[in-house]
UniProtKB/TrEMBL annotation, chain A:
SUPFAM superfamilies linked to this entry: NAD(P)-binding Rossmann-fold domains
Protein name as catalogued: NAD-dependent epimerase/dehydratase family protein
PANTHER family recorded: BIFUNCTIONAL POLYMYXIN RESISTANCE PROTEIN ARNA (PTHR43245), NAD-DEPENDENT EPIMERASE_DEHYDRATASE (PTHR43245:SF52)
Organism: Actinomadura soli
Pfam family, one: Epimerase
Gene3D superfamilies the UniProt entry points to: NAD(P)-binding Rossmann-like Domain
Domain NAD-dependent epimerase/dehydratase as annotated: residue spans: 9-237
Top-level taxon of the source organism: Bacteria
TrEMBL record, chain B:
UniProtKB keywords: Acyltransferase, Transferase
Keyword Lyase: no
All copies of domain Phospholipid/glycerol acyltransferase, residue ranges: 98-215
Transmembrane segments: none
Family matches, as SMART domains: PlsC (SM00563)
GO CC terms, sorted: membrane
Organism phylogeny: Bacteria, Bacillati, Actinomycetota, Actinomycetes, Streptosporangiales
CDD domains registered for this protein in UniProt: LPLAT_MGAT-like
Keyword Acyltransferase attributed: yes
A GO MF label: acyltransferase activity
UniProt name for this protein: Acyltransferase family protein
Length: 334, 309
């Protein structure tokens, strides 16, 4: 039996952008018999991605309903894309979705005899951001100071549960993907909302190194992990690094450096009075110290390079959002 | 570092002082414009690239253009006119990856800046220093240090840089060296825990010993206000004859005469990479490097003569 052939694929988080795009890509693959998408809310028009022959099942992965679905449909491959990073949803609910949802899902996977493969979307946020860590993280590096709050901590816990499952079901092919920030024309994330502020506040005295992965590359990595066998933990990011100041200048966004404490206060006020999402502590740390991950292992394993570098991913995102370069055009006329 | 406070200033003045931006040295027979016009044009081009973010940084945050156009010229002024640095043995710096091991002194690590200028101007190499984590916690200093190509002192970063064939610099004495009292000048402190030797062994690169004479006299530290240091989270709070007595004016370094000397590269070829896991050998090599630097330090000190002439 060719181990790689995925017949029945279950995609979680299918009503959100990345999940919808992955489901859309997988359903176009004739080698896959069925693609089942699950989420707590029905897929709306908001993602703008057609799901094709994907069968949508509205089930909360925090309930045992997910186990019934996996057993009855004979799911052999689970693509878990349910990690919620948004800070606009109340924190307690996010944690519930991320951690408890994953626990239920993994329990169901462990029980099912048909299961062969698990692909988990994690986040490079598991490395945290601090001034005391190496400049570049490889998959083997443990951060000096792990993340203590927010979705970053959820991602750490999710990875722990996945490792637990790997110990108990050593026959499964498990791929864990630590994604850098996903950017692209269709992405809506705390970071893209941050960039769209009328005047972007930055942390005074710090200029973090950032990395991005283009949505197309992200989807391609997830597709390959699903249809081919690549067990292990991999960092996913576009090549190269962009400084925050550099990114803001390239997008022509006006920005003003403010001291870190007032930045989090501004975020709180924005959340309370202006309906903005605020700055989560882990976003703030990232905007202060930045983070760079080493993607050599992924390139080696897939013999493939992301089409978009961090720079190109950002440029594509900026162009799609109509960010101009007022300063450049002004200077160009000189 | 006080030199850095002038950065914004320098950026504002771009239009006025654009000529040293590397254009003056170019062959000007082909271009009919006057040097001033070309200077202004290249200055504006530089300004446009900076304002539109049109430049590259590496994974460590090193920004070569920013470094060579803004940071180094400021340091170079100190190097050439204030400290009048004399360089010796620069031919000992090999091509490719190597680890430069130098003594550290002067309360404020201006020796690191001067070493960067020396290697940039006279060996055409970009020195990548390994700094204390305190540097990266301090606003402005941390990101300027990264933009200048330096990074945190840790095994992983050092190995990554050496694997890319970079010239990496370390000050194994760390804060013990840079913050030692004036009375102990030119006496090397303990060389950390020998981590740098392990790094060189694993990367298979030579160690280039380096002696820096002159930095000891720039801020003669005669006392240390420990409670204040603890309050500010600093490793020491120095008292010099001029600081804090003269306020900010006390921050002007004394114009000592400097000499920087590179010794012959110490190849570690007779050891293999596994030796890095043999603490006894690592200690031996560490002591050997330390004696070498101390010896070079005494010789160079004798050759320099008086401290301020």
């Amino acid at each position: 039996m060719p181990a790689a052939a995925a017949r029945v694929v279950l995609v979680t988080g299918v009503s959100r952008f990345l999940g919808a795009r992955v489901a859309n890509t997988l359903q176009a693959d004739p080698g896959i018999e069925r693609v089942i998408g699950v989420d707590t809310v029905p897929p709306g028009a908001s993602t703008g991605v057609p799901l094709g022959r994907t069968e949508f099942v509205r089930v909360d992965i925090r309930t045992p309903g997910i186990a019934n679905l996996i057993a009855s449909a004979g799911v052999d491959t689970v693509v878990h894309l349910h990690l919620v990073t948004s800070s606009s949803v109340p924190r307690a609910k996010v944690k519930e979705l991320n951690v408890i949802g994953t626990m239920q899902l993994l329990a169901a996977c462990q029980r099912s005899p048909d299961m062969r493969k698990l692909v988990v979307r994690s986040s490079a946020a598991v490395y945290g951001s601090s001034p005391m860590d190496p400049a570049v993280f490889t998959e083997r590096d443990e951060p000096i100071e792990g993340p203590k709050s927010g979705y970053a901590k959820d991602a750490v816990e999710v990875e722990e549960y996945v490792r637990g499952l790997m110990r108990r079901r050593s026959d499964l092919t498990v791929s864990v993907l630590r994604f850098a920030n996903v950017l692209g024309p269709g992405v809506d994330s705390p970071f893209t909302r941050y960039l769209r502020l009328p005047v972007v506040p930055t942390v005074l005295g710090f200029d973090p190194r950032l990395q991005f992965v283009h949505e197309d590359d992200g989807v391609e990595v997830l597709r390959r992990m699903t249809v081919e066998d690549h067990p292990g933990c991999f960092n996913v990011a576009g090549d190269g690094v962009l400084l925050l100041s550099q990114a803001l200048r390239r997008a022509g966004r006006p920005y003003v450096p403010v001291p870190a404490p007032s930045l989090s206060m501004l975020g709180d006020m924005g959340r309370r009075f202006a309906g903005l999402s605020g700055f989560s502590p882990e976003l703030l740390r990232w905007l202060t110290y930045g983070r760079v991950i080493d993607t050599a292992a992924l390139a080696d394993e897939l013999s493939w390079h992301p089409k978009y570098s961090s720079e190109a991913a950002f440029a594509d995102f900026a162009a799609a959002h109509g960010f101009g370069r007022p300063l450049t055009s002004l200077l160009g006329r000189l | 570092m006080n030199a850095h406070h002038h950065d914004d200033h320098a950026a504002d003045d771009q239009d006025a002082q654009v000529i040293p931006l590397g254009t003056a040295r170019r062959d000007d027979s082909a271009d009919e414009r006057s040097p001033l016009e070309r200077g202004i044009a290249s200055g504006l081009a530089f300004l446009r690239r900076r304002l539109s973010g049109d430049y590259d940084v590496d994974e460590f945050g090193f920004d070569p253009e920013f470094n060579s156009t803004l940071l180094l010229p400021l340091a170079r002024a100190l190097y050439e006119h204030w400290f009048r640095v004399e360089l010796a043995g620069v031919e000992n710096v090999p091509d490719g990856g190597a680890l430069v091991v130098a003594n550290h002194s002067g309360v404020i690590p201006l020796d690191a800046l001067m070493l960067s200028v020396a290697l940039h101007d006279h060996a055409d190499r970009q020195l990548r220093l390994l700094g204390a984590d305190l540097v990266y916690q301090i606003p402005v200093l941390g990101h300027l240090s990264r933009k200048a190509g330096h990074t945190l002192a840790c095994q992983a970063d050092a190995a990554r840089l050496l694997a890319k064939g970079e010239l990496v610099g370390v000050f194994p004495e760390g804060f013990k060296g840079v913050g030692k009292p004036f009375a102990e000048r030119y006496k090397l402190q303990r060389f950390g825990r020998g981590g740098f030797v392990g790094t060189a062994l694993r990367a298979g690169v030579p160690i280039v010993p380096c002696a820096i004479v002159g930095a000891e006299e720039i801020y003669p530290k005669i006392a240390d206000v420990r409670p204040l240091a603890r309050l500010l989270g600093l490793p020491y709070f120095p008292v010099t004859p001029t600081f804090p007595l003269l306020g900010p004016a006390g921050l002007v370094p004394l114009p000592s005469k400097w000499m920087i000397r590179f010794g012959e590269p110490m190849t570690l070829d007779e050891y293999d990479a596994d030796t890095a896991d043999d603490p006894m050998t690592v200690f031996d090599i560490t002591d050997h490097v330390r004696e070498n630097v101390q010896q070079m330090l005494y010789e160079t000190l004798l050759r320099r003569g008086p401290a301020f002439l």
